[in-house]
Structure formats: structure tokens, C-alpha cells
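yo

u said u wanted the structure for the complex thing, so here. seqs first:
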Amino acid sequence: MNPKNDQIVHIEDVCKIYKAKGSFFGTRKKDVVALDRVSLTIPRGEIFGLVGESGSGKTTLGRLLIGLEETSSGKMFLDGEEVTHLKGKELKRFRRKVQMIFQDPYQSLNPQRSVFDTVSEPLKIHKIGLGSDKYEKARQALQAVGLAPPEDFLHRYPHRLSGGQRQRVAIARAMILNPKFVIADEPTSMLDASISAQIFNILLKMRTDFDVTLLFITHSLAAARYLCDRIAVIYRGNLMEIGPGEEVIGNPIHPYTKALLDAIPKFGQKETVRRHGTLLVRERKGGNGVGCAFFSRCSVAEEGQCSMVKPVLSERGPGHRAACFF
Amino acid sequence: MPLLSVENLTVGYNTKHGSLKAVDRVSFTLKEGESLGFVGESGCGKTTMGMALMGLLPPNGSVREGEILFEGTDLLKLSSEQMRQVRWSEIAMIFQAAMNALNPVQRVGAQVAEAMLVHDDLLKEEAALAKVEELFDLVGIPRDRMLDYPHQYSGGMKQRAIIAMALACNPKLIIADEPTTALDVIVQDQILEEMKQLQKEFNLSIIFISHDISIVADMCHDIGVMYAGQLVEYGPREAVFESPVHPYTKALLASFPTLTGEKTDLAPIPGETPNLVRPPAGCRFCDRCTKPGSTCKTEPPQWVAISEEHKALCCRCK
Amino acid sequence: MTNAEQKKQVEAPVRFPWLESFLEGWSIFKQNLLGKIGLSLLVMFALMALFSYLPPLINPMYNPMTGVDPNILGCTGPSLKHWLGTDFMGRDILSQLLAGARVAFMVGVSAAVMSIALGTAIGMTAGYLGKFTDTVLMRLADMIMVMPTLLVVLLLAAVFGQLNIWTIVLIIALFRWPGVSRIIRGQTLSLKQRPFVEAAKVAGASHMRIIFRHIMPNVLPLAFLFMTFRVTSAIITEAALAFLGFGDPGTVSWGMMLQWVWKTGNMFQAPYWLLPPGICISLITLSFYMLGRAMDEVLDPRLRKEDQTD
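structre next:
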């Protein structure tokens, strides 16, 4: 199937399985299925939110899309071209179009390199621009992320920058090649709230100024609501619900989404906020990779259907899909 | 008489850059059975304050001024042996990232028992283990997991074990420093609910320290907002969250994305936190404040009483 | 967890980062007593090495190898003309001692540099490429590590006759790289996983670029630290070889001096000949060791984050 041209990212039935290293004599540990037949499409210019808890597979999906890991099966397309297994020159060309902002600003910058070195490295790698051009581009990139005056920052080293400033440098580095698609993997989970807000606003600005498509990976539904046009909820390697941000949050369908919404602290608003109550207090046995991934914790799930058959995403409203039998 | 009454607590650190006041003249009270939350971003001094209350400051830190009255006794005037007896049996603490503080080579049940045995010379080992079983029931860990090692526990279970340890000697006050930060949202919700129930059951007082206002708002009766070592707003939960007065509190609330209500623009707070080695002469929030007053830069702000229980440290807020 | 970082008052751009790190390291180093003693001793030995060129210039009779005092036929004690006395051939002991310092530095430093360079290159390659290459290289390292250097050199000497000093240096280097390579490999493995290396990969960096620009600079401090320990062992190995009679007869080293004392049966008769080289060997190794320990302290704090005061 040839994806349309205004779809920047299109993935079909992507699976990622980590094989367990079984010892010759010991018991064979089970293979870990990090992603189970995930498909989604992100149109140009959209900010797409992927929300999940730890172990959901959201970071793995980001790493597959950026090419840091290989898919076990399935296909991935970027801007019309298949990018599932790339090598050599094609891989390098691909790298100009897709970039990543990492979670830990304290580890994603080489401590031995100055801000200028870090931000201009992509230019050097792809041999863009002469010496002075690089300086100018780096300056502009820092300006765009709000590190002003840029000259002050270009010669500094990471240990002289705060967490928020480091993350801005990481964004500048990601944007300097003018990529089509940027993956932001929990870019604010290590930052304070007020600094996170700065980063969110910068990401929004990047979308407007540079027409870039963004995948925002997070564990916070509230942050996804603020930033994203559409949201997908992922649990144990399966997409549970996907739809426009306000719809998924205001009108959740999947029991897991409802459980997440219940669990988020509500700023002390008295218990007037209705709880959906879809989470079981104690997990029950069952599932084991066959039925719905959420079966063991779902209070509305039925033995039989939910524990034997995995539901697929079905349309519930305009653009709003959920993987549930109810 | 309140359970805990702190007056003008000031804690300083000696660092290679100079001496800095991590906590500057903080005062508050806590009644029995109630909870008080301290909210602030990194560097505001909330963890230091928690450590000071327990008498667990690192070697380069010391209490410069103030008094900590726990049930009428000034903890700062106690000897280290007396303080050791107070610790855990009267006041217990749940440290930041406490789950990582579990000894990986000792069974969890044994570690919780040890907390009791260390603080009570007369307790026998069997009695301690029996108590551990009770505690595990309380916090929701199946009894048969007592003999497991920490790596066999999930994040949520480890945190529950830590809570069990804190409750082991029946303290009156628990200081919880970011107890749920490393946990997923659903587990966090469960743990917080359990803490609320335990509080009711044992009439515990809790001091809850967090950078996440939403949690503090859910858990606590009273809130204290800290910035750059100072308490800038203090009052009952409803007052502070529904009608904040201090510019920092307002700005902080405005920088959290919400799930409900109108989707307003997040207004981040520009600038950075001030240098605590050479703090500014006037209000510490002045250069980031949206509407500073004329004297804010040069004169230190004064406490303004908004209502009987709600006050803010600001010159403009009258 | 974010740090409470005290905002530095000086916002000026750092043009010479190496200088700044060096100065910062120096101030930490200065506080370490062991380091200061070690450094002073090393400076003394370095001066000795420099001065070794002087005596023959003053008077050809002071040449450590060929200088013969016409008035003296054998061992004599310290005197005004020969501050440490003369050896069995009438050569000045002090000038031999100074020449020995020069040789010690040459041998020590060259062997150390070579083995570190080799060990670092192999360690980084093994760590970075992993899998087959890693296994092969590390098994090779294991095999070499268990071989006794001294024994092999003795065998080679027995087969090929007297060895040239530079051959000895080469052999020491070839046998000493495994230890370094293991440590460097470990460091490389952990660096490979760090986000900034992944970020470079994501930007499209080639393997070469990642190794040279990202891994190597973060691995070098460790390598330099190791160098101080390697110098020590190289000096001792050379001294041992010389003492056993397998050194380069054309160079005067402290080990050589000890060999001559022993061979000519003057061990107890001429303490002024026996003691100086022995003490020098011990002191120079001690001083390198102390320097290494002090450097350890300098390098460590920089790997740690700044003080947390939250």
C-alpha cells in the first residue's frame, strides 16, 4: 500500500520482540514482546502524542522510528519511502529527515564538547555549509530556541548550563538540519514544571516556524492534551485508543484510558469528579499474551472473549478508535 | 497544642562556592492527624528542611537559627542520642528515591524488622517479624513476599515496603519526600490513597514534600509554597489553590497543564532561580515577577495576612 | 532529578576549556599531600635527567660509560672529585646515576605511552564493535596477560643474544597493554549506551566519528591515569632485566649499575655504589604511584555532578 504524500509517518503492523537469552541448562525465559502489531499514521505538521506508562513500549517505538533499533516485523514509511531496513548512504539520508530529542538533558550532551560543537555537529556530518556558515546557522538555531544572546552560549560547556538550557540546546541540535519529523522522547520528565512549560512552548513554536511533524512521547496525559493534536494511548505494546486529544480525554472509551484519567491527581478538586472505576483493585489471572493486554486489570472485561481474543482498533467516532469489545 | 511547631528555621550549607542559606526563616505549625504539603521546584530548600527536621543534615550543613518544637520539646536542643530515639519511633521519614535505598542483598521482611529492632532494645526477633506481617497487610503487600529480595519487587511494592518501614515504630509524624516520583500514575494513585487511609486509621500527621502541586493538593490540608529557600505562601489547601496570592504561586499553578477546563496557554516562568550564595537584597522572586512593585527589588518582603490562616510573603499583595 | 545549580556569576564565554579544566584540576591536586610529594620527587628526577648531560661536558672523565679517571684504578669511596665515588672501572658513580635517571624516564615514559596507546585503541575497538571482534580481542588480551613478561624477555634474550634498549621497551609495551584495554573496554561499553552517543548516531555520525570525537575524549582521562602506573612497572621491568644481565650493555641504567655491583662482588664492600641506584628505583616508582593516586582524586570529582542543595 502506497501511503499518501501528506502522511509523513506511516507504520504498519510493527512488532518488536526481545529474544530471551536462554541458557543451555536453565529454564528458557519468555521472549518479551515490546510492541505487538502497532500501526499508525501521522500527517504533516501534526503533533502526535503517544501516552503510556513504563513498560508500555512507547520509548521502543520512538527508537524504532529513529533507527536506533530494528523492527522484528512490519513496515515503516517516511514521507512516502520505505525506511524499515536502511543501511549505508540511504540511512545517512534518512538521518537528515528524522531527529530525536532525548529524555535526559544531563546525559544527551557530550560533556567534553561546547554548545557550538554539539549544535553544529549534524552540519559537519552531512557536510553542509562552510566554516562561517556553520557558526551563523548555530547562532540562528540557538536564537530560535530562546537562548539569547546566542553568542553567550555558543562557547559554553554543558556543565555550565541548567537542565532547561541543556534541553534547549538539544532541541537546537535536532532542528538545525530542518528535519521533517522530530521525535521528542519524554523531553520534560526530568525538568521542573515551570521549565517544562518553556520547553512545551518552544516545541509548539518549532511546529509553526519550521513546519515540522512531531511525535511527543510522554507518560502525562495532561501534557499531551496541551501539546498534541491527536493522542494515542499505549499499554504493554498495544495501542488501546487513538483520536483527537480533546476527544480521548473528554470522552474516553477504552477502560485503560479511563483508569489513567482516574489516577491523575486533580488539584484537590473535591470528589465531585466522577471516577470511571475501570481498574481492578487486585490483578486477576489470565491473558498471558493471548487476549487483551489489559484483561488482568480491567473491571469490565469478560472471561472468554477478552481473555482469548485480542481486540482490534475500531472506529467509535470521527477519527476516534479504541481496541475494546465494549 | 500543635504536634509540630517550627519557628524561623534557617539551614545553611558550606560549599566550595561559599556559604548558602538553603532554608531561610521558615515557620509553620502542624496539628495532630493533619497533613501539610510543601511545594516548590528544585533548589527551593524543601528537602533540606525535611532533613533538618529529622536531624539528618549532611556534614557541611547546619541549622543556623530557629527552633523545632515537637510536642513541646525543641529537637534542636537534644543530644544526638536523644534525637536517635526520637527518630523513627516518633518521627519517620520516607526519603527521595527511597526504593533505591533498600539493601539489595537482604530480604525485605528482614529489613523492615531491622528498623524496629534497632529502635527498640526490648523487642524480640519473633515479635518483630510478627509485626512485619501486620504491617505488610496494612500496606497491601502479600505476606508470602516477606522473604523476597528487593529486586523481585515491583516499583510500587518497594515503595509500599518503605512505607511499612516508616510505620514500623508507630511514629506520630511522617515526613514523605517525593514518595511517588519514580512511580507510574496508576500505582502512584493507589499508594496515595493507601497513605490517606493509613493516616485516618492511625491519626498520623504527614509532611508531604513534592514538586508536583497536583499531588500535594490532593493529599494535604495545608500547603506551603517554597521558593529559593523561603516560604512564600502558606495556608489551607482551598485558599492557596483556589485563590493564590503570591506571584510565584500563581505562576507555578499557571505552568502546569490541566486535564479539564479551558485549554489556556501555559505561561512558563522566565529566568532562573537566584543564586543562594549571594541572594538578592529584596524579594527573591522579583526579577521573574510579572508585576514587581517599586520597593520589591531593594526591600525584603513582609508577611501579609490574607485571612486568619492564609498568608503570603509579598509587598504588593495586600 | 534536577540539580540546584548555583548560577555562576561569570557568564563570559570559555575560549580555552582545556585551560580551565586544567586549572580546576590543579587546585584540587594542590590540596593532596601525596600528589605534592610525588610531584616534587619527580621534578627532582627530571632535573637529574637533564643534568646528566653536564658531567661529560665538564670533563670527559665523567662520562658514565667510558669516562676513566687516570688516577683511579678501582672502586673508591666518595671524594671531592667524585661525589659518590667510582665503580670498579674507575667511572664516576654520580654521572652514572644521572644518566640512569634519563634512561628511566625514557624507558618508563615510552613504554607506558606505547602500551597505553595500544591498550586504548584495542579496548575502544573491542568495546565499540562488540560481538566477535570483542571476544577475539579480549581472549587475546587474556592470553597475553597470563604470560610472564620477564620470562619471555629472558627467553628472547637467550635466543637472540643481548637486546637493544628500544627492543626491550617495545616488548614491555607489547605485554602490558591487556590490563589497560580491559578498563578502557568497560568504559567504552558504558559510554556507548549514553544518550549523547546515541544522539550522535541519530545525527548520522559514522563509527569513526563517534569513536574519535565522542568516546575517545571521555576515555582519555582514564588512560592517562593508567599511564602513571604503567611507567612504574616499565621502569621496574627494565631494572630487573638489567640486573639479571639481560639489559642493553650500551646504556647505563640503574638496573645496570646494580648488576655491575653484584657481578663484581662489591655488594657489601661498596655501599656508596649499591645504595644510590637502589634508592632511586624505589623513589621514582613511589613518586609515580603517588602522582597517580593524586590524579585519581582530581579526575573523580569532575565525573560527579555538582553539590546538591535541594
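Chain B is about 30% helix and 25% strand. The interface with chain C takes residues 13, 15-17, 20, 22, 41-48, 96-97, 272-278 of chain B (CB under 8 Å).
cya
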